[in-house]
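Structure first, sequence second, as always.
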């Protein structure tokens, strides 16, 4: 277990084990504080068990249990007393480390023993977002060199890239999430290749060292005053803003879908908890009709809807049941894939799997009890409503900008962040940058795009802090590994305007044809590249292109 120091006398940790108590003693800690109520989850060690082990190793122990999100003034006072009286250094723990960090910050505010706990709470915790109102009201607005709204791949990678270049920049990341997901892996979860747990880590574990994590939602942007409004009533100020809020999956735009999801054959690889259900449905299905839908653009990973279909067909083919299954692909778009170069290889699989491809067919309603999906289909300029019975329905929802962005001065007419496609700087606010799925750019919304965007934004942010113009630009690169069968992928790599931007020579990976090399890249190489390089600021194959230099 890695203990995370907050100051010279206090460190925090997620739930510890009895072995961690011994490790804490070995590292020189003299006291342990438990901030977790007993019985929060099955198998959790009780405070008495931890106390006994601590005593065995000569450590003092205090139990200050706090229900998540309900810290009160009395809890802060108790934490302050414990920190003052227990032998230092002290290790505090809770389920994830968040409550302990929260209480540490409040205790410091209570005793005035430190300057601005809001500005020093680290990735182990969540600032004072969930603290008691009477304590929170005493905290002044904080100001940072850089405020990043969004702790997904775009926000984390950008922060890490900035700090790799200048560790003295003060950065706040605003995001309420407890977990961080490698979403490109959900396609493989749906095919039984990955376990869902392989795609999830605690948000605290990916937060770059040295940033202030405010674990609270952003509710508004005031770029004219260089401020971000938070859900707990605070505002924070910045010199430069990086807006990386992602997008919202608008399940409600398909009538009846929210009630139908997760049962009766209705699933989606676009949700962590549903991707395993996709795999169960595919394994169980021996005959009948399987429908796969794709909504109008923009969506994250435009190839994901058909990836789910190809991998399902591959499993059915291996099981010998594919001839008994009627597979339909309902795509709201007018083409199978937006870059024509890759379509011939995909069409070979459409034919081989016997897929009935229906373009300009948009899913508008789901009746889960009757197992009927309703589509609006367009043909020769005329539209008609068509109902299709199903045994399995894989749905991809419409995807929209978050309301706090769409209703803010940052938004373009689309509702997404209005940025220059090359520099990723806002078109009206020179100290605002946007990237990732929430940016109003025409590139494919993929993790590979973010991997290229983050270093560009990082160097441009540092230039903005120095009063200079952007120094790097982005060519629209995105990658979509189209999993056409288990073991083979069509690796689509392209930039703005559909320009092909292959990373590897054709003799190694021919992106226009299905290859095993591309599958190896997707299954074995990209996940560690994501966790250990991209989110850590290591810009492997992603060095920012300097404006004016040859590509």
């Amino acid at each position: 277990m890695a203990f995370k120091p907050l100051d010279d006398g206090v460190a925090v940790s997620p739930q510890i084990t009895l072995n961690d108590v011994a490790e804490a003693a070995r590292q020189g800690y003299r006291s342990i504080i438990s901030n977790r109520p007993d019985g929060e989850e099955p198998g959790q060690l009780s405070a008495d068990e931890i106390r006994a082990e601590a005593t065995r190793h000569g450590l003092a122990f205090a139990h200050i249990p706090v229900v998540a999100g309900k810290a009160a003034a009395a809890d802060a006072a108790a934490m302050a007393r414990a920190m003052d009286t227990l032998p230092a250094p002290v290790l505090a723990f809770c389920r994830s480390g968040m409550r302990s960090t929260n209480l540490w910050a409040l205790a410091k505010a209570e005793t005035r023993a430190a300057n601005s706990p809001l500005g020093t709470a680290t990735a182990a915790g969540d600032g004072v977002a969930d603290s008691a109102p009477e304590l929170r009201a005493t905290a002044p607005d904080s100001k940072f060199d850089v405020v990043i709204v969004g702790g997904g791949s775009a926000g984390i990678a950008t922060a890490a890239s900035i700090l790799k270049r200048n560790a003295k920049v003060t950065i706040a990341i605003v995001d309420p999430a407890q977990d961080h997901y490698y979403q490109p892996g959900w396609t493989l979860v749906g095919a039984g290749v990955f376990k869902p747990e392989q795609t999830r880590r605690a948000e605290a574990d990916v937060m770059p060292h040295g940033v202030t994590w405010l674990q609270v939602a952003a509710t508004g942007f005031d770029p004219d005053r260089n401020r971000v409004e938070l859900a707990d009533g605070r505002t924070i100020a910045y010199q430069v803003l990086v807006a990386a809020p992602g997008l919202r999956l608008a399940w409600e735009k398909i009538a009846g879908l929210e009630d139908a999801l997760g049962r009766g054959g209705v699933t989606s690889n676009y949700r962590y908890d549903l991707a395993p259900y996709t795999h169960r449905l595919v394994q169980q299905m021996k005959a009948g009709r399987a429908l796969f839908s794709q909504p109008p653009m923009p969506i994250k990973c435009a190839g994901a809807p058909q990836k789910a279909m190809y991998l399902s067909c591959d499993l059915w083919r291996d099981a010998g049941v594919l001839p008994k299954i009627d597979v339909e692909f309902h795509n709201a778009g007018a083409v199978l894939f937006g870059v024509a170069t890759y379509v011939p290889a995909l069409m070979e699989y459409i034919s081989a799997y016997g897929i009935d491809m229906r373009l300009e067919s948009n899913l508008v309603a789901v009746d889960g009890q009757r197992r009927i999906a309703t589509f609006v289909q367009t043909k020769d300029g005329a539209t008609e409503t068509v109902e299709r019975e199903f045994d399995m329905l894989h749905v991809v929802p419409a995807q929209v900008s978050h309301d706090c962005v769409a209703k803010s001065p940052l938004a373009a007419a689309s509702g997404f962040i209005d940025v220059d496609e090359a520099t990723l700087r806002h078109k009206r606010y020179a100290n605002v940058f946007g990237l990732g799925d929430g940016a109003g750019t025409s590139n494919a919304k993929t993790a590979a795009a973010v991997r290229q965007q983050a270093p560009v934004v990082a160097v441009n942010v540092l230039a903005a802090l120095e009063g200079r113009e952007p120094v790097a630009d982005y060519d629209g690169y995105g990658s979509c590994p189209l999993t056409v069968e288990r073991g083979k992928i069509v690796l689509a790599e392209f930039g703005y305007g559909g320009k092909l931007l292959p990373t590897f020579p054709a003799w190694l990976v021919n992106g226009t044809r299905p290859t095993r090399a591309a599958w190896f890249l997707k299954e074995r190489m990209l996940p560690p590249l994501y966790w250990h390089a991209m989110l850590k600021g290591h810009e492997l194959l992603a060095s920012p292109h300097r404006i004016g230099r040859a590509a």
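Margin note: The longest strand covers residues 235-243.
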